[in-house]
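Morning!

This is the sequence you dropped in the shared folder:
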Amino acid sequence: MTTYGTILIPVPLEQATPVLRKVCAVGYALPAGTAFSLVHPDRSVDDNDVFALAGPISAGLGVPVLAAFQYDGDRLELEVWRDGVRAHRYDSWPKRDDRDAPDAPLGADPAAFLDFAAGPVDSHRLASALADTPIDEEDKDVDGDPGYVWAQALHWDVLRALGHPDQMIRRAQWDYFHMRGAPQALAEVLDGTELIALGTADRLF
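The structure's back. C-alpha coordinates below.
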Protein backbone atom coordinates (compact mmCIF):
# COMPACT_ATOMS: atom_id res chain seq x y z
CA MET A 1 0.00 0.00 0.00
CA THR A 2 0.98 3.63 -0.42
CA THR A 3 3.18 5.43 2.10
CA TYR A 4 2.79 9.19 2.42
CA GLY A 5 3.69 12.12 4.63
CA THR A 6 1.93 15.48 4.77
CA ILE A 7 1.56 18.53 7.00
CA LEU A 8 -1.77 20.31 7.48
CA ILE A 9 -1.54 24.02 8.35
CA PRO A 10 -4.58 26.10 9.38
CA VAL A 11 -3.65 29.18 7.35
CA PRO A 12 -4.10 30.01 3.64
CA LEU A 13 -1.29 29.03 1.29
CA GLU A 14 -0.26 32.62 0.52
CA GLN A 15 0.27 33.24 4.23
CA ALA A 16 2.20 30.02 4.78
CA THR A 17 4.45 30.18 1.71
CA PRO A 18 7.19 32.55 3.00
CA VAL A 19 7.86 30.33 6.03
CA LEU A 20 7.64 27.14 3.98
CA ARG A 21 10.25 28.46 1.55
CA LYS A 22 12.62 29.05 4.48
CA VAL A 23 12.28 25.69 6.23
CA CYS A 24 11.49 23.08 3.55
CA ALA A 25 14.50 21.98 1.54
CA VAL A 26 12.49 20.10 -1.09
CA GLY A 27 8.75 19.70 -1.43
CA TYR A 28 5.43 20.93 -2.72
CA ALA A 29 2.71 22.97 -1.07
CA LEU A 30 -0.87 23.52 -2.16
CA PRO A 31 -4.09 25.00 -0.80
CA ALA A 32 -6.56 22.86 1.09
CA GLY A 33 -9.62 25.04 0.85
CA THR A 34 -9.50 28.74 1.63
CA ALA A 35 -8.24 28.47 5.22
CA PHE A 36 -5.76 25.55 5.15
CA SER A 37 -2.55 24.54 3.39
CA LEU A 38 -0.87 21.20 2.76
CA VAL A 39 2.87 20.51 2.56
CA HIS A 40 4.35 17.40 0.96
CA PRO A 41 8.10 17.34 1.72
CA ASP A 42 10.69 15.06 0.17
CA ARG A 43 11.27 12.70 3.10
CA SER A 44 14.41 11.23 1.50
CA VAL A 45 16.27 14.47 2.32
CA ASP A 46 17.86 14.69 5.78
CA ASP A 47 15.82 16.68 8.32
CA ASN A 48 13.07 17.24 5.77
CA ASP A 49 10.39 14.75 6.80
CA VAL A 50 7.04 15.88 8.17
CA PHE A 51 7.99 15.49 11.82
CA ALA A 52 11.25 17.41 11.41
CA LEU A 53 9.51 20.29 9.64
CA ALA A 54 6.39 20.57 11.80
CA GLY A 55 8.19 22.35 14.64
CA PRO A 56 9.86 25.08 12.56
CA ILE A 57 6.66 25.66 10.57
CA SER A 58 4.54 26.02 13.71
CA ALA A 59 7.09 28.39 15.25
CA GLY A 60 7.45 30.45 12.09
CA LEU A 61 3.73 30.86 11.51
CA GLY A 62 2.61 31.01 15.13
CA VAL A 63 -0.11 28.42 14.56
CA PRO A 64 -0.46 24.73 15.42
CA VAL A 65 0.29 22.27 12.62
CA LEU A 66 -0.64 18.63 12.13
CA ALA A 67 2.00 16.30 10.71
CA ALA A 68 0.82 12.92 9.39
CA PHE A 69 2.80 9.89 8.27
CA GLN A 70 1.05 6.79 7.02
CA TYR A 71 3.23 3.74 6.50
CA ASP A 72 2.34 1.04 4.00
CA GLY A 73 -1.34 0.94 4.94
CA ASP A 74 -0.51 -0.44 8.39
CA ARG A 75 0.17 2.50 10.66
CA LEU A 76 -0.84 6.14 11.05
CA GLU A 77 1.24 8.56 13.10
CA LEU A 78 0.00 12.08 13.83
CA GLU A 79 1.83 14.86 15.66
CA VAL A 80 0.47 18.24 16.71
CA TRP A 81 3.13 20.95 17.04
CA ARG A 82 2.69 24.37 18.67
CA ASP A 83 5.26 27.16 18.81
CA GLY A 84 8.02 24.77 17.80
CA VAL A 85 7.19 22.16 20.44
CA ARG A 86 5.42 18.84 19.99
CA ALA A 87 2.16 19.11 21.91
CA HIS A 88 0.58 15.74 21.11
CA ARG A 89 1.44 12.44 19.43
CA TYR A 90 -0.89 9.76 18.08
CA ASP A 91 0.17 6.29 16.96
CA SER A 92 -2.41 3.84 15.65
CA TRP A 93 -0.07 0.85 16.15
CA PRO A 94 2.56 1.51 18.86
CA LYS A 95 3.20 -2.20 19.18
CA ARG A 96 4.86 -2.22 15.75
CA ASP A 97 8.07 -0.80 17.23
CA ASP A 98 7.67 -1.97 20.82
CA ARG A 99 6.30 -5.39 21.66
CA ASP A 100 5.71 -4.24 25.23
CA ALA A 101 3.50 -1.37 24.10
CA PRO A 102 -0.27 -1.67 24.48
CA ASP A 103 -2.37 -2.92 21.59
CA ALA A 104 -4.60 0.15 21.72
CA PRO A 105 -3.64 3.31 19.83
CA LEU A 106 -1.50 5.85 21.68
CA GLY A 107 -2.79 9.42 22.08
CA ALA A 108 -6.40 8.84 21.00
CA ASP A 109 -7.61 12.18 22.38
CA PRO A 110 -10.09 13.92 20.05
CA ALA A 111 -9.61 17.30 21.77
CA ALA A 112 -5.98 17.39 20.60
CA PHE A 113 -7.09 17.75 16.97
CA LEU A 114 -9.88 20.31 17.19
CA ASP A 115 -7.68 23.19 16.01
CA PHE A 116 -7.70 21.54 12.59
CA ALA A 117 -11.47 21.49 12.12
CA ALA A 118 -12.69 23.00 8.86
CA GLY A 119 -16.35 22.85 9.82
CA PRO A 120 -18.69 21.14 12.28
CA VAL A 121 -16.94 18.27 14.06
CA ASP A 122 -18.42 14.78 14.04
CA SER A 123 -17.29 13.93 17.56
CA HIS A 124 -18.45 10.31 17.41
CA ARG A 125 -16.63 9.57 14.15
CA LEU A 126 -13.46 11.33 15.37
CA ALA A 127 -13.33 9.42 18.65
CA SER A 128 -14.11 6.13 16.91
CA ALA A 129 -11.42 6.66 14.26
CA LEU A 130 -8.72 7.54 16.78
CA ALA A 131 -9.68 4.50 18.84
CA ASP A 132 -9.24 2.35 15.70
CA THR A 133 -12.88 1.28 15.76
CA PRO A 134 -14.32 2.08 12.31
CA ILE A 135 -17.98 3.00 12.00
CA ASP A 136 -18.38 1.99 8.35
CA GLU A 137 -18.54 -1.71 7.56
CA GLU A 138 -16.31 -1.43 4.49
CA ASP A 139 -13.43 -0.19 6.66
CA LYS A 140 -13.55 -3.12 9.06
CA ASP A 141 -11.23 -6.09 8.84
CA VAL A 142 -12.80 -8.84 6.73
CA ASP A 143 -11.38 -11.47 9.09
CA GLY A 144 -13.31 -10.03 11.99
CA ASP A 145 -10.30 -8.55 13.78
CA PRO A 146 -10.91 -5.17 15.40
CA GLY A 147 -9.59 -2.05 13.76
CA TYR A 148 -9.29 -0.58 10.29
CA VAL A 149 -8.13 -2.69 7.37
CA TRP A 150 -6.02 0.22 6.10
CA ALA A 151 -4.50 3.17 7.94
CA GLN A 152 -5.48 5.44 5.04
CA ALA A 153 -9.13 4.88 5.95
CA LEU A 154 -8.42 5.80 9.56
CA HIS A 155 -6.72 9.03 8.41
CA TRP A 156 -9.62 9.73 6.05
CA ASP A 157 -12.14 9.39 8.88
CA VAL A 158 -10.14 11.69 11.17
CA LEU A 159 -10.11 14.45 8.55
CA ARG A 160 -13.69 13.80 7.53
CA ALA A 161 -14.78 14.05 11.17
CA LEU A 162 -12.99 17.41 11.35
CA GLY A 163 -15.17 18.71 8.53
CA HIS A 164 -12.76 18.54 5.58
CA PRO A 165 -14.21 17.81 2.12
CA ASP A 166 -13.29 14.70 0.15
CA GLN A 167 -11.17 16.60 -2.36
CA MET A 168 -8.96 18.00 0.37
CA ILE A 169 -8.61 14.60 2.07
CA ARG A 170 -7.46 13.04 -1.20
CA ARG A 171 -4.77 15.71 -1.47
CA ALA A 172 -3.75 15.11 2.16
CA GLN A 173 -3.03 11.50 1.21
CA TRP A 174 -0.67 12.34 -1.65
CA ASP A 175 3.08 12.07 -1.22
CA TYR A 176 5.94 14.11 -2.68
CA PHE A 177 7.09 11.15 -4.77
CA HIS A 178 3.65 10.58 -6.29
CA MET A 179 3.42 14.23 -7.23
CA ARG A 180 6.87 14.36 -8.76
CA GLY A 181 6.33 11.11 -10.63
CA ALA A 182 3.17 12.05 -12.53
CA PRO A 183 3.09 15.82 -13.11
CA GLN A 184 0.62 15.73 -15.99
CA ALA A 185 -1.88 13.62 -14.09
CA LEU A 186 -1.43 15.90 -11.10
CA ALA A 187 -2.07 18.98 -13.23
CA GLU A 188 -5.35 17.49 -14.40
CA VAL A 189 -6.43 16.67 -10.85
CA LEU A 190 -5.51 20.12 -9.56
CA ASP A 191 -7.35 21.75 -12.47
CA GLY A 192 -5.70 25.13 -12.13
CA THR A 193 -5.16 25.05 -8.38
CA GLU A 194 -1.94 26.76 -7.40
CA LEU A 195 0.93 24.47 -6.43
CA ILE A 196 4.15 25.84 -4.95
CA ALA A 197 7.52 24.17 -5.54
CA LEU A 198 9.69 24.48 -2.42
CA GLY A 199 13.49 24.47 -2.30
CA THR A 200 15.03 22.42 -5.07
CA ALA A 201 11.79 20.66 -6.06
CA ASP A 202 11.15 20.62 -9.79
CA ARG A 203 8.46 22.96 -11.01
CA LEU A 204 5.88 20.58 -12.41
CA PHE A 205 4.02 22.93 -14.72
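Headline: Residues 50-61 form the longest helix (12 residues).

More detail when I'm at my desk.
O.
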